[in-house]
Amino acid sequence: MPTYVYKFIDSGETIEVQQAFSDDPLTEIAHPTDGVVKPVKKVFTPVGVSFKGGGFYKTDSGSSSKSSTSSATPSATPSATPAAPAAPAAPSTPSAD
After folding, report:
1. 63-77 residue pLDDT tens
2. Is the sign of the CA dihedral 38, 39, 45, 48 positive or negative?
3. Which helix (H) or strand (E) holds 77?
4. DSSP label at 76?
């Protein structure tokens, strides 16, 4: 159920209210501290979008055509073994001339 922000007209305080999409906007709400019913106005806030988890990339929705999934699955052939790292060079000593 979505949460909407309402502002008390007389005091400027805000309150969050959960309402169904089909509910009409409220015009009065009981104040949470004193319980007095006061007029309110609905506040329109920007929509917050949160992408959580891995896999959200710029190219995910780049084209309408589906690419093959063969690149995403591991290949059946074993990959080449990486070369062993080179041995460190022996430290050079200055020659005594």
Report:
1. 555 555 555 555 555
2. positive
3. none
4. S
CA-closest candidate to residue 47, choices 14, 76, 5: 5
Question: Exposed/middle/buried for 6, CB within 10 Å: 0-12, 13-18, 19+?
Answer: buried
Q: How far apart are CA 7 and CA 44, in angstroms?
A: 10
Give all strands of the β-sheet with 3-8 in edge-to-edge order: 14-18, 3-8, 37-43, 28-30
pLDDT tens profile 4-62: 999 999 999 999 999 999 999 999 999 999 999 999 999 998 877 777 777 766 666 65
> What are the distances in angstroms from CA 27 to CA 6, 9, 19, 24, 95?
9, 10, 13, 9, 93
